[in-house]
Design brief:
By secondary structure, this protein is of the alpha+beta class. 17% of the residues lie in helices and 30% in strands. It is built from 5 helices and 12 strands. It has a 7-stranded antiparallel beta sheet, covered by helices on one side. Strands 1-11-12 form a 3-stranded antiparallel beta sheet, with no helix packed on it. Strands 7-8 form a two-stranded antiparallel ribbon. The longest helix has 11 residues. The termini are far apart.
Amino acid sequence: MSDALLTADALEAGTIYRLLSGAIAPRPIAWVATIDAAGRANLAPFSFFNVASVDPPVLAFSPLLDGKGNAKDTLRNLDEVAECVVHIGGEALAEPLNATSASLPRGEDEFDHAGLTKAPLGELRVPRIAEAPIAFGCRLREVIRFGDRPRSGNLVLAEVIAVHADDDVWDGRHVNIEALRPIGRLAGADYSRTRDRFVLERPQ
């Protein structure tokens, strides 16, 4: 077994992306709805995603700039309307989730493209996906921008202000993982399921 010492500045962005996305896995998927200033909805999945804080409740996800260094619609919309709804899709919605990763022209509605239904969430202007079992309605706290090069990240910190959770998924204390059936992102076109689990009790 050989030790491979790599320096990040010697690797192309595409190589680093493949290394990070292959090694840091499985990753949860944020299915993010936003709107632009004209009220047109956008929906896109992001697997650079996790919880950043509990009190206050803050979610973190990172839209990358595209291969030409351009911002995706999600980021542009957040600059115009500082709200978003973050959904957890699950296996039952894997196909429409994947459909919303298509590169559609700006302003084209991914809800319609994927055959999904819009529903309101509290006082937010951004709609939620009616079919999604869990939705976190958020107001933007901050975007930390890591540069303007292709594939540079933009860390979105979004504070949860409203939650929708189906009764069969959330009983007020626990999430029913069998009902939610979340999926994770691996490298390339691969995804993971949570059907095979094991338990390790945390040491005292």
